[in-house]
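Mods, move this if it's the wrong board.
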Amino acid sequence: MPDLLSEAESLYGTSNLYEVFGVSKTATASQLKKAFYKQSLKVHPDKVTEVDKSLATQKFQLISKLYQFLSDEKKRDVYDKTGEIDEEDAFDWSNASDLMSYWRELFPAVSTEDVEKFHNEYKGSDEELSSLKEAYLSSKGNMQHVIDSVMCASVEDEERFKKLLEPLVKSKELPSYKKFFKEPAASKKKRHSKAVAESKEAEKLKKELKGDSSSGYADLALAMQRNREKRGDIFSYLESKYGDAEDDSISSADNKRPKKDLKRKADSKSSGSKRRKKAGK
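Not the wrong board. Structure tokens:
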């Protein structure tokens, strides 16, 4: 059985753990967790075709083990200094249910309720206004760009956005762009037609994903489609949530096994290793 670094070389073309996750050696704990989340979504056994499942499972198990090492401050420090990892303490993720339980503990299922809650908190906030002003300035008042750029925005927000920016234009805080406040009817009609098409697409997606919401992916996909989140803005928020962006310290929860029996397995393995060492003296 190949060691983990050799396995990484074989499956990902590199034995550098940071390269496997696509981050730098100086990545924070939250950045590393986000990177693990992104990589794991690409190879999650439940999200690939039957043809790709075998290879995906190997990769999923590997990056889970590697993340366990890098998410442990002491083990990461040893790896950074020596380029080696102590596989004696590697978790046994051959049991699929244990691995899935661990992954779900790290990344709880996202529901439409989670996303809607964020929408309600974001709309009308200082963050939204800041994003609105930035989009308005960078596009010189292009409403389509504003709608595309501001998180959670839709055509239904157009008049609200105008009311928010009007006083800022009058006070000279922002320049006046005629096309924003008096947009040509043709461009407005085109944008609204596109919104109607997206709404229909969202309803279609909802029907296709119905019954698959237990993992949270159906709800997330629907929310992303319906609220233009497919552009990645809200996804960044969710990654922030998953990655504990407010705390860059190593999370001890990341290094806990999801079940007590896993702890017993590790203890048994550790005891066996100690007995072997004593016997060899």
